Each structure stands twice: as C-alpha cells, then as structure tokens.
Amino acid sequence: MTLTKQLIEWRRDFHRHPEQGFLEMRTASIVANTLEQLGFSLELGKSVMKEDECMGKPSTETTANHVKWAQEHGAIEKYLPYFQDGYTGIVATLDTNRPGPTIAFRFDMDALPILESNEPDHIPTKLAFRSIAEGSMHACGHDAHTTIGLGLATLLAKKQDQLNGVIKLIFQPAEEGTRGAKAMARAGVVDDVDYFIASHIGTGVPQHHFVAANNGFLATSKLNIGFSGKSSHAGSEPEKGKNALLAAASAALNMHAICRHSGGDSRINVGELHAGSGRNIIANSATIVAETRGETSEVNDYMKEQVENIIAGAARMYDTAYSIELAGEAISCKCSEDLAKKLAETAEQHPFIEQVTLVSEDNAGSEDATYFLEAVQKRGGQATYCIFGTDLAAGHHHEQFDINEDTLLPAVEILFTIACDLD
Amino acid sequence: MTLTKQLIEWRRDFHRHPEQGFLEMRTASIVANTLEQLGFSLELGKSVMKEDECMGKPSTETTANHVKWAQEHGAIEKYLPYFQDGYTGIVATLDTNRPGPTIAFRFDMDALPILESNEPDHIPTKLAFRSIAEGSMHACGHDAHTTIGLGLATLLAKKQDQLNGVIKLIFQPAEEGTRGAKAMARAGVVDDVDYFIASHIGTGVPQHHFVAANNGFLATSKLNIGFSGKSSHAGSEPEKGKNALLAAASAALNMHAICRHSGGDSRINVGELHAGSGRNIIANSATIVAETRGETSEVNDYMKEQVENIIAGAARMYDTAYSIELAGEAISCKCSEDLAKKLAETAEQHPFIEQVTLVSEDNAGSEDATYFLEAVQKRGGQATYCIFGTDLAAGHHHEQFDINEDTLLPAVEILFTIACDLD
Amino acid sequence: MTLTKQLIEWRRDFHRHPEQGFLEMRTASIVANTLEQLGFSLELGKSVMKEDECMGKPSTETTANHVKWAQEHGAIEKYLPYFQDGYTGIVATLDTNRPGPTIAFRFDMDALPILESNEPDHIPTKLAFRSIAEGSMHACGHDAHTTIGLGLATLLAKKQDQLNGVIKLIFQPAEEGTRGAKAMARAGVVDDVDYFIASHIGTGVPQHHFVAANNGFLATSKLNIGFSGKSSHAGSEPEKGKNALLAAASAALNMHAICRHSGGDSRINVGELHAGSGRNIIANSATIVAETRGETSEVNDYMKEQVENIIAGAARMYDTAYSIELAGEAISCKCSEDLAKKLAETAEQHPFIEQVTLVSEDNAGSEDATYFLEAVQKRGGQATYCIFGTDLAAGHHHEQFDINEDTLLPAVEILFTIACDLD
Amino acid sequence: MTLTKQLIEWRRDFHRHPEQGFLEMRTASIVANTLEQLGFSLELGKSVMKEDECMGKPSTETTANHVKWAQEHGAIEKYLPYFQDGYTGIVATLDTNRPGPTIAFRFDMDALPILESNEPDHIPTKLAFRSIAEGSMHACGHDAHTTIGLGLATLLAKKQDQLNGVIKLIFQPAEEGTRGAKAMARAGVVDDVDYFIASHIGTGVPQHHFVAANNGFLATSKLNIGFSGKSSHAGSEPEKGKNALLAAASAALNMHAICRHSGGDSRINVGELHAGSGRNIIANSATIVAETRGETSEVNDYMKEQVENIIAGAARMYDTAYSIELAGEAISCKCSEDLAKKLAETAEQHPFIEQVTLVSEDNAGSEDATYFLEAVQKRGGQATYCIFGTDLAAGHHHEQFDINEDTLLPAVEILFTIACDLD
C-alpha cells in the first residue's frame, strides 16, 4: 500500500472511532502497535504521564466502561493494560546511535463531545467513515494529527540512514480542554529534547500555506466550581438554609466583573451554572463551569487568582463550603525563531507549499503543547508550533468539520525533512 | 363491605396508584364511576375547569403518555374522554329537591413527584400498597382526601332523607403547586354555593384534634422564568453574545433583595437556576424556578410585581428576551367565623374528637382552595377550611409520610353531620 | 412657681438647647444641679457608663467643640468635668432609709440631627423656644422626658415621707440610634433594682390614653461598615487596584438578599453608600451605613450575623480590608405583666387618663431601654415600658414635631403615685 | 526680550494662574490679545464652539464666579464678553494671501483639579510660580502647550514671508475630561484644513526625542449617571420605597461585568458611587461617576451601549427614574503617515532632537484632539498627533509634575519649520 493510501486509511479509521480525552485506548493501542512494528522503543501510560497533573479526567466508571467499548471496536488487547486507567500517552523513541540532536514531535489523539452531522453531503457520511460513537467526533483534526504522526514514523523507520541523533514521537491524550500535555511535560518526556515541534492542521490557514511559528495561544484555566450549602423549606424555615444558588449567582456576576489587565487581553466566562433541586427549597448545591484566558500566562494567572478570591468570598457570604477543581490549563508561548526559520525554509522547498508565514500572532485559542515548548526552552532547547493549512468544510468544533486529506502527505514529508535537516 | 373497610380499600388503592397534578385520570375515572353509581349528577373535565386558568400543566406529550398508563392500571375507559387532555376535575351534585342551602365540599386528588420509601417499616411497603408509579407518591394525604370524599358521598346517598337543599362534591386536580383550583373557581363551580368547606388531614394537628378554621395560608405565586440571549464563543468573540446566564444570576440576586413588607410576612425563593451549555460559550439561555409568598394576597402581589420588574430589568441589562410563566398561584383567606363555629360544635359532639380549635392562624404553607373560599364569600356565602388531626409517620412531602387510617371514618361522619345541620 | 409652670419652663429651655447623643453636657449639668439641690445622691459620667459599651460616640474633636458650646449656653461649670468627654449619664438616688423595694425610672435626654421648622405656626417658633442649635432638634420628645424626670424628682423630694425603699432616677444619653443605654446597663446601674419603669410620650398613642406595657420594640443593630482597597489608574493599570466600590456594591446587594426569618419580622437597610474619589481611579475606599432589625433579638442577631458573613465575603472577593463598627444596638423586650397591671390600675385612677391599654404589641421602632428591662428581669425584678399619649403636631422625627404640654404634669403624677404604691 | 525668555515668562505666568476646563478666561484673554497684536484675525467663543456639544461644563454659578477671579488676576477685560459664559475657544488665522495649503495647529489651555505640591524642591515652588489658585494646577503641561502656541504665532508673524497658504491656530478649552474639542470640531473650525497637527509635551517620551504620530489613544466616554427613586422609612414601611441605592449597586456590578471585546482593549470604571441620606431611610437617590474606554471607537461605543442597557435595566429593576449625562468623550485615531513622515524629517534636522519615532502605538490615555483629526481626514486632509519628549519631575497629573523648559523653543521651531515646509 502506498503511504498516501495508508494515511487516508488510518485517518478514516480514527475518524470513525473517535475517543475523547483520557479515553483514547483504541487509538493509542493501534498507535503503539504500529510504532512497535516499525521498530520504535515505547514508553506507555503512567510511565510518561504524571498522574496528579492530569486534569479533568473522566470518572473511574466512565473510564472502565470505555475499556469495553475499545475492546469491542478493535483495540489491540496487548496494550490495554497500559491504557485502561485512562493514562493513554505514548512516547516512541528511535535512536540512530549516531551523534546528533534529540528531536521531538508532538501529536494529539483525542476527539470532542460533538454529535457528528449526518447530512448526506458531509464527506465522512458520504464515504461511510462518520463517527460510530454517537456524541463523539473528530471535529478538530486530531485524527489527522495521529495519522501524520504514524506517517512520519513510517518514513523515519524506512529512511533511518538519513537521520542522526534521537527522534521522539509524543502521542498526547486530552488536548481538548487543555488537560493532557502538562502531565506528560511534568513526567519529563521532553527533558532531553533539543528541538521540539508541535503542529496543527487547519485553524483558518488556507490549503498550501504553512505557518512556521504560532505565538497567538491564550493561556487558559478551566475551572469546575462547586458550592455546598444546606437545604431548607423556603416557606417554613428559610433562615435554616445556606443558599448555594445565591453564592453561585453572586460569584458568577463578580467573576465577570474582574478588572481588565493592562498587560494584555483577558477573558472570563461562566459557561454553565446549575443550582437547586426544587422551587420551594433553599438550594443546597450549585456548580459553575468556567474558564479564564490571558494573552500571557501572567494575565491568565491574574484572572485565576481573582476567581479564587471571588469564589472564596461568595462562599463566605452565604456560609457555604466550596471547591475549585482545575479541569484543564494551558500557558502562552513564544516560539523559538531560529527553529521557526529552519521550518520555514524547509516548507518553502516543498512543492505543495505556496506561501509561508514565519511568525503569526493571531489569536488561535488555547493549546497545551505550550507546556512542552516551555520545558524545552527552559533547558536551552528550541521549540515551535507550526500550522499546516488545509481546506475546511466547516470551522473547528463544528459538526460538519472536515479536512482536505491532500494535506496529509505533504505534512508528513515536511516534518520528515526537518528531522533530517536539524543538527 | 363496611364503610370502614371500603374507606381503607379506596385509600390504599389510590395510594398505590398516585397520579400527579392534571394527570389524575385513573383516580378521577374511579371517583366519577363511584359517584355516578351513587346517583350523583356529574360534570366532568373542561365543563368545570376554565382551560386558560390551569397553571403549570404538564406537556401534551406527558399527558398523552399518562393516558396509556391509566388505561393499563385500571382506569375506567368510559370516563377517559373527559379527562384525557388533563382536565381532571369533577363536580358531583345531589339535589334533594327540598328547599335548603347549597353546600359544597372540596377534595383534592393529586400526588407528588417523590420516590416513596421502600423501608420495610414504612406501612405502605409493609402492607403492599406502596406506590407502583416510581417517582410519584401520595405524600400529602390527598389519597385520604379523595377517600373521605367518596365516603361522604356514600353516606349522603344512603341517608339522603336527612338532607335539604343541594350538595356539591368538588374533586379538584393539581392542588400541589397550587395549580388547579383557580381554573375550577373561575369556571363558576361554586357560584351558587352558600356554604363551602375544604378540609385537610394532618398538617401537624394531632390525632383526635380538629381545627374548624385555618387562616394561616400564605398567598403564593409559582413562577417559571426564562431568559433567551445569544450564544457566542467566549474566547474569540465574546462581545457578540447576549449573556442569559448573567441576566439570570443578576435577577436571582435582586429577587432575593426585594424589600420586606410592613403588611406581613413575605417569602421569595429562587429554587433552581440552570443556564448555559458549555464552558467556552456565552450562555444563550437560562431558566429560573421561583416562588413568592405573602401573609396576605396584597403582600404576595407586591412580591410578584417586584419580581416582574426585576426580570424585565435583568433582561434589559443583558439585552435578552424573557418570559414569565405563572405555574401556580394561591391567595390567602379568612374563614367565615359563623360557619367555623358550626363545624366546631359538630366536631365536639363526635366521640373521636378530643380537642377543637376554632381558629388557627398558624402558618400552614399555601393552598389554592382559597380561590373557592374567596368566590363563595364574595357572593355572600360562608366558607371555611378545616383540619382533621392525624398521626403522621413523617411530615408532609416526606418519603415516609403516612397517615393513621383511623381518622378516615370520623372525618366522613363529621362532614356528613355538617351537611345535615347547615341551613 | 407652680410645678406646672416649672415643667413648661424646663421643657422649653431644653427644647431651645437641644444636644445630640453623648453631647448632652448642658442638659446633664442642669439635671445634676437640680437633683443635687433636691437632695439626691449623684453618680455622674464614667462611673455610671461602661466606656467601651458606648456606641457611635462622636469624635473627640466634636466632643471638645461641644464643651465650648455648652459653656457659652448656660451649662453649669461645676459638673462639666464629669461630662466633658461625652459620658453624660446620671444616676440620682434617694434612699428613704425605710425598708422597701428599689425602684428605678429612666429618662432620656438627647436630641436629633434635624433642622427645626421655622414655620410661624410651629409652636416653638411662635413662642420663641425653637432650637438655637441649628441642625439639632428635640423632635422625639426627650426634652419632655427630661422634664418629667425632674418633675418626678421634685415630687419625690417633697413628699419623701410617702415613700419606702430606694428610688433611682436614671438620665440616659444617646437613646437616638440606640447607643447609650447598654453602657449604663453594663455599668450595673440597675443591678440592685426591683422595679424598673421607662416611659415615652406620644408614639401615636392619643392624648388622655396610657399604655402600661409596650412590647413592640424591634431589636436592632446599627452598623458602620468600611472597605479599604487600593487605588489605581483605571485606564493604564486597572489590575493593580483593589476595588472597594465593587466590594461595597456587592455587599449592599447581598445584604438586602439576606433570607427572611420564620421567627418573626426582620429588616435590613443599607441607607448610605459612599465610594470612590474620581472617575478614572479604581476606588480605594467605601463606606456603608446600615441597620438590621428583628421582631425578636434572635431574629436581629441572625440578620447581623449574616451581614458579618457578607461583609467578610465581599472583602474577600475584592481582596480589601474591612471594618464593622457597631454604632448602636437594642434588643427586644417583653414587659413584666404584673408590674404593667399595677401601672394600669394607677393610671386608671388619674383624672387625666380616659383609656388604658395593658399590653401593646404594636411595632414602635427600636428602643435601648430594653437593656435595662433585660438586666432587671434577669435578676428577678420586674420591668415595663409605658407610654403617655399626647397630641402631636407632627410625627416623631419630623421637623414640626411638637407635644401637648398638658401631658407633662399627669405623667409626673402617675409616675410618682407608682413610686409610692410599689412594694 | 528673546523668544526663549518670553516663552519662559508666558509659561510661568500660565502655570501660576491655572484655570480648569471652560473657565480659561484669563488665559484665553491673554492669548487673544497677543495674537491680535501679532496680526492674526480672531474668532472667539461661541462662534468657534457648538454650544450643545460642550460636555461636562461647570455650572452657571461656578462660571460666573470665575469671571470675577479672572478679572482680579489680570484678565484682559476687552475679551471677557466672548469668554464669560465659559466658551473659551479661540481660532486665530494668518492668511498669507499666497496660494498654498491651510494648515492648523491645536493647543490646549486648561488645568486640572489638583492641589499643587508646596515641597520646597518643587521647581514652581522654589522659583515662585506655583499655582495661586489653590486646588487647580497645570499638572499636564497645557501651560507649555499654550506657550508653544504663542511662540509659534510669534515666529509665524515675524517670518510670514517664508509661508504660503493659510495658517490657523486653534486654542482649545477643556481637553481634560475630553470635553472641549468636539464642540470646536463640530463648529467646523477645521473644515477647510488640509494639514492638522496637534502636539503634546512629555507623556513618557524622553527629552530630545520626538514622536511624529501617536495612535495609541483610547476612545472614551465619561458618564454621569443618576437614579431617582423614592424614600421611605426602612423600619415601618420599607415596601413604599424605590431603592435608588440598590439600583446603583446593581448597575455598578453589572457595568464592570460587561463582556470583553475581541476587537481590542476595553476599560470600564465606576469611579464614584454616592447614595442615600440616612441609615434608616430607603435611599431615594444615587449617583455614579463612570467612564468607558476602547482601543477603537467601535470598542468604546460597544462599552457605552452596554452601560446604557445596564442603567436602564437597573432602573427598571427598582422602578426608579434614571439619567445619563455625557460629561466628556473622545474617539480613537490613526495618524496620516505621509504627514507624520514629513514631521519626522523636519524634526530629525533640528539639533535638539536626538531620536525620532515615526509611529507609536503605545497606550497614551485618551485625547479629544482626535475629533479634529477625524474631521480633517474625513474631508481628505492629513492629520497627526506628535509628541515632544521632555524631562518630567513627576508623571502627568501628579502634584509635583513639572517639565523641562528647554523643550519649549525647539518645539516652537520645529512646528514653525513644518508650517514653512508643507505644501
């Protein structure tokens, strides 16, 4: 089978079997199996993920249920013991045993909680690779990312003699909600890395275009907040209650009133508020689902600190208990310009690429690969986050999202060339 | 079968088949059938309920589904056409054709959305008449009320020669949430009534005690409030959103801040608030489930008016649409003391009764029989709300609520004697 | 001079020279001088007031300035050393040296911060005893109370042989704002008292009527609240600020949202809020002037506790410091019915009195004499708060308030008779 | 007298006699007199200011009082009739009668409500030109701007033969609070202008540096907001009140909660909130002093629109009336780059200037000269806002603010050279 054909096969298989964050058991088992067969050394699961740095992990029950689903849908049993508790990260290493730099590439594997369109014109529907896991969908292109990672592995293995040093391929769970990267970075998986490259497909960059360095990621914190009060009959003894609903309402309002920061853009959103269990009962519990963002990590840290003050204060007001769970987090980044230049030069040589942007500062949401960039840069390495433009059928996170598969092979080839060229 | 036995049989059958407000199809069909067999003239369904005055009616779908349940659980088919749209009220008339007053008795039939206890010590569990409709329960004694009504009908029919004038028995749906009485009162069912008597079992009054007039009902309004804004991505273009969550949070806070009223006790509760659909999305919808209460109707009207101002203001703040649905309402009442005295005298004569209170002002929640009292008193008639004390296994609306069935027969006999004595 | 003439002379002199709470230096010096001349033993100033229980005392500067005013307006120098620091309480004792009960009467002396009307029809204007201290006014009748106290002292001294036991006359400062009584009660001035009687003129009770026991006082707390944050330029570095204005706004809103209490009426009012110093500066300070009330002390304590939670919470939200100063406080009371009966009987005998009410539960604002009642009742004594009805030209605290001076002598005589009759 | 000496004399005289916005009567009379003597044609007062576009004008009383002050401190009587109502703008024209462009320069004249430092080290104190108008101070350099304007006029008049076309000098009142420029721009004073140049001294730019175009001004709206409710006794009939304090508190909180805008930086500040008149009175009035800002006029318009929604909503909540007064406003700007380039070239030639920045995007607060820029650019002209760096003793708006007077002459010379060079 040609690599082109293989890439499309992989991509459609992953697209058809989307798995959400920390549940990428089938995906990871196939990735592990492929890499092992290609001759990579593998580190799997908890050995590459710091358990207590995983954020927003699904419940034990959800995780256990998903094991069954994975088993029933083609997961490779041999690897499940590593992944079955939801630690689905993989680090695959190819050591050329020749002197040279250590180069790492990061690929993310998770899907989104979106019900995929079944419009007949939607290509995955038409060509019969629409998601079979109702309510889960690869609507951000991570199926393509995983595919590119396997494609790159294939070339690396095959053309190993063109390489020097050590190559590490990092397959990360739970990028959505910025939940998984920190646990891998903190486990030290890039602590020996000289060059680090993360990549994304799409994000508004047109087909045939390439961005060598994207700095526009907002730092972000995802917060699940709970207030726990005391219920009471609202007619007969309201004063006995401790009103968690009012604590949450007051918190929501004051969170949005957090002061702007002169150091850069900030964001705050209380996306969900749910409180109370009946009309005539003082609400004894309330939950808030919120996020902060900042143009820099400093700005986001400021926002998060204010949220903590406000939650503690709202709880104090109504004499309730409270909890704040960090369900995801990412920092901002500043790509290494020297590395970006090398990528730009490489990309310019590829016949598929018509336009190259060296550095983009466009706001592109949040991304937790930034933890890897930070770790590598801290120890003196270089790191960048590049974007392969592609035609999109609809925007990221849309139920009709789809990429142009023509982008897959050029992406693989460009990354492979970089791996060869860096020294 | 003795009346005592019959009463217990009825009560346990109703207890076993609880039906929530506007869904009392099985119950009403059995009531109608029994009354018709006893010789009462019947008016059923929409002819005794003003459709647009029904508040908080279940959806068409829920109503249609319940028809099936009723059919499967012993509803008498013949009467279902009258009740199948959820208008489950009954007025049964016995005309003695002798001159005399028109006397009306009100009984309510609906159950609560409570999962009945299955503790082995809970009598209904032990004696196998626990609710078979999971999630519905007669936890307020309306099963007993319906039973007393049928018992009273039995005596009235049997001892018709002791009576004068006209007797009307009103079986009302949806007293819980104070949703059903207004529709019957506005349909004019008590517009010819000289004496009106509603009664309740329990409410904290001990076994063997009788309260002839209870004035302690709080006027109340049950409000379902909705805010409808516009969603938007909280990171990339937050300014495009119209934040329904913040409108609701602001409304909740300001509703609780409504000023106290010097004219009497008031209450306000936002019992539930649900808003938003995702962490990173400006919430485009929010719902509030609330209630106001007042020691007098004037105080409750004041509270409700303030709520309306606040909701309109909160919507204006965030440029959202809003809706306020009246999901239930009751007024306060002042029982007719002359009628209460007659009840007190009658009750004192009954061997079961050890203590009689003429007038109680104790706060006893809210009750929509007050609409009947108001209508009767307005046209010059007399009306009261009396209470038959009983032992309670647990408080009203508790999952282990249970009455002492010994109270049933004396209640029937006292009401019958009153019917005989009034002139 | 007849007592009638003397009473009017005293009353008009006090009316003309109103002194606000803790500043009654001229008044107290005249009271002290009169009582000493009548043969009473005096305890003055700090010896009858617990310093740290004085609430809402004016500043040292205001107090010092008022000393001069008092000196220039007829204060008797000899007594000023006792009063010049603002501790203006007096306890005057007459010991008959005959066995008998200890009976105490309380009179309050302070005026209000109201600019008296200069309408020509306003009697004090017409008869030239309008306040000469612009902005201060006896608009609640305490000028009459002080006068009645001196009149009573006159009769007691003159007709000492009709008495037994010990008589104590308590002249209290700062009843307005409920600030002065607690300090005297806590200093133990009624700890030896068997019968305690406080009285008020007017309060809506008509001329010739007498109320022997008034229970309708609301417990209350007067709170001065401050938030202290950090200012910052709102345009260039808003994030450096700690916004005291928003802390106060949030506090105000949530204070009004304190839940109703089933134990009785409650009140909350944020009467004033002042914050900030410029349009483009994050406000670094805010003050709130507030009060809570409760039908019972328990209800008021509940309200106050919630306020404390809310203030602490609002400060936590915005990371500001805060302070809560108790600027006044009163408890509720329940008069001793036996004592009230004796008063009622005595009053009924007086030719001026046409109607006597034994116990009134009418809401009559707040009053700190309740601290004396509590102290006396706690040790087994009896205590009551009675009202002498009078014609009012306008309501209490109105700029045209005025009493009917015909009430003065009967009030003196009734209190004297009681002093004689109690045993 | 040399021009250098004259500049210093003017500047110190203006510094000693600071006049706040719309009160620059003395200043304007001296400016007018000087320009007239130099041969300029004058338009004064209302003829160059659209009355109803003046924002935040002092009261009639304040204005009338200031006329006296101006007369007593050296105002030139002849011009006062034009300025005495507070319309203190001047447009002075020099027509060379040679073909050529119309070039306008804008200078602002007003001082700030700041008490100037009297530290002995503060140069104005040391050299005896500290403000003699206590509470007013030239703490932003407008004394220097007016001086530079007069210096430029002097050179223009003297070296008229080097010029072509028409030169307009605009002396603007009330730049502080961004209140005066709009009224002049709307009066059409730049409607015939081809080149427009505004300038500022300082603003953080170092001595010997020059910025040819400053784009970093935030659009802004200054808002005075009032709520008018109804007072009521908080204890006896709280429900009768309409609580303006709570309306304002709720407004303040929700104003700060206005959503961030993806189109650029925004700001909101409720700088002052004052409400209520007594502890036990429901507050019947409240005032808010606020401002919004936006990186672009679009962002600021968004902020202002949200404020209007919130104020209307808060008033609706509490059934109060409300008012919103626009007390100042400015738009953002984008300088004309061609004109900026010419300024940059000219400045580079001047021996005093060591460094030139073509365009700065640094946030530099708000400035209403932007209305002039907009008007000129709209009709196809070019406009820029340049900055002459200077040593500052302390930051703008600081009580020890002071400039380096060495900057005055170079500024005059550079502006003169530009006037000569533009064609």
List the chains of the largest interface with their residue counts: A-B, 41 and 41 residues
What is the tally of helical segments of chain A?
12
- What oligomeric state do these chains adopt? homotetramer
Please identify, by name, the CATH architecture of the largest domain in chain A. 3-Layer(aba) Sandwich
Q: Please give the number of β-strands of chain A.
A: 12
How is the largest sheet of chain A built, in terms of strand order? 1-2-4-3-5-12-6-11
Quick synopsis:
The structure is a homotetramer of 423-residue chains. With 423 residues, chain A is α/β, with parallel strands linked by helices. Chain A has 12 helices and 12 strands.
Structure description:
The structure is a homotetramer of 423-residue chains. The first copy, chain A, folds into two domains: 3-217 and 333-421, Aminopeptidase, CATH 3.40.630.10; 219-330, Alpha-Beta Plaits (2-Layer Sandwich). Helices cover 34% and strands 21% of the residues of chain A. Chain A has helices at residues 3-16, 25-38, 60-72, 80-83, 123-126, 142-158, 181-186, 244-256, 297-317, 337-349, 370-378, 408-421; strands at 41-44, 90-95, 102-108, 166-172, 195-201, 209-214, 219-228, 266-275, 285-294, 321-330, 355-360, 382-388. In chain A, strands 1-2-4-3-5-12-6-11 form an eight-stranded mixed sheet, sandwiched between helices. A four-stranded antiparallel sheet of chain A has the order 8-9-7-10, covered by helices on one side. In chain A, helix 6 crosses helix 12 and helix 8 runs antiparallel to helix 9. The longest helix of chain A has 21 residues, at 297-317. Chain A is globular, with a radius of gyration of 23 Å. The model of chain A has no long low-confidence stretch (mean pLDDT 96). The A-D interface holds A 253-254, 256-257, 259-260, 262, 265-268, 363 and D 253-254, 256-257, 259-260, 262, 265-268, 363. Strand 8 (266-275) of chain A pairs antiparallel with strand 9 of chain B.
